[in-house]
Design goal:
Number of domains: 2
Largest sheet: none
Structural class: mainly alpha
Helix content: over 70%
Radius of gyration: 28 Å
Shape: globular
Strand content: under 5%
Number of strands: 0
Number of helices: 18
Order of helices and strands: HHHHHHHHHHHHHHHHHH
Amino acid sequence: MAVDVVASGEAPPGRLVGRWVPLLVVAIGLGFGLLVLLVRLHLEPVTNVDHGVVRELNEVVSPRPYLVDALHGTTRLGGRPVMLWLVGVAALLLLVRRRVRPAVYLLATTAGALLLDPSVKSLVGRLRPVVEAPVAIAPGNSFPSGHALGSMVVYGALLLVFLPAVRYRKLFTAAVALLVAAIGVTRIALGVHYLTDVLAGWLLGALWLSVTAYAFRLWRREAAHPAAPLDDGLEPTAAEAVEPAPDSGRPIPHRWVEATEILTGWGFTFGILYVVGYLLTNHTEDTWLGRFDDGVVRWLRTLRTPTLDDVSWVWSAAGDTRAILAISLVFCPIALAVWRQWRPVVFVVLTMLGELTLFLCTAASVQRDRPTVPQLDSPIPMSSFPSAHVAATMCVWVAIAVLVMGRVSSRWRWSAVVIAVVMPAGVALSRMYRGMNHPTDLLGAVILTALWVGLLCWVLRPNARAAPAAVRT
């Protein structure tokens, strides 16, 4: 094969890459060095352009709150929490699929970007822009933009790793490039970076990405793997491994039938919750149940101590929106990587969407007041029935327990059941201790979880194995 290639006068792909990648790295490095020099010299034309762009964009953005919200939402996609989550989940997926080299590449590339950003900022020492109507605040120095650098490196590295599993590669590459560009533009529009800061971030990110990609190709060559064009990604042979669920087929075979059943069950569940909440709100004030509700919360108030206050805050935080979202965002990728099916992910997503909509609709309809004791948390303009913290905690952990018990054969699977009992119990006790919910509010959370999760288990059969595409009709 090597003789045929040489005889035909065509260089193999690896040799072509070996020629143009060093040139590209040098060109990008020169562009970044030129920007550093221009910024350090404080040349008036560059300074005027930087200040003029920031000023003009601030005049356009600051009077429009909807535009500010859109920019903040976009710029978060380039923040460290989102990108570290993406890299962590992707690396975990690769390790589960036994693709160590791409996982090491992702982690090393990301770690390098995390070190480059503060190092270059401290060396240049450029202050951030000062605008007439600030709409965002960012700490530290300005040059280069950490969001522009990080998004270029992280999204570029993810693109190179998962490109072998992408069907429409040009479209996917264009979408990633558009996202990186949009994140950089938001930093200027929010008035926290100059134009040259963002350009420098892109150039430095592209430089680091090119160096690490070329090093990875040399690593593969040393391991006697054949060279391949970058259009096929860094590891073309890993196409099946990096594909999320190659053999799962359609997660819901009869989706219109299942959708009708789920919507009907949602309405039935909401009706039961509304009736129970209405009765508790309007017909238990002078009954034994009403006295029990108030008595339990008042008794827990007498047990308050600074230590228990701190412990209850931790338990309560375990059931808030951020914690539940974090649990879902960690479990779903792991489930997808291990079981290679979309059905468990769809089950968890529908569980949490249904819980959220059922709580919001029930709370808006019932409008039950919170207990009449001093509350340790900030007053929330939301009904006490059902308890949102307890319902979300029960739904997510019960859904996880259902999947683990049906798919894991090890005896450790019972730990999921224990967690599904302990976590909601701790959150429920903390919410009553902090004066945020009545005991009967917890009953609403139990009804919601039992009916909704039970309905989804019956309709979706989350532990069923999808038939191969060749067998399904």
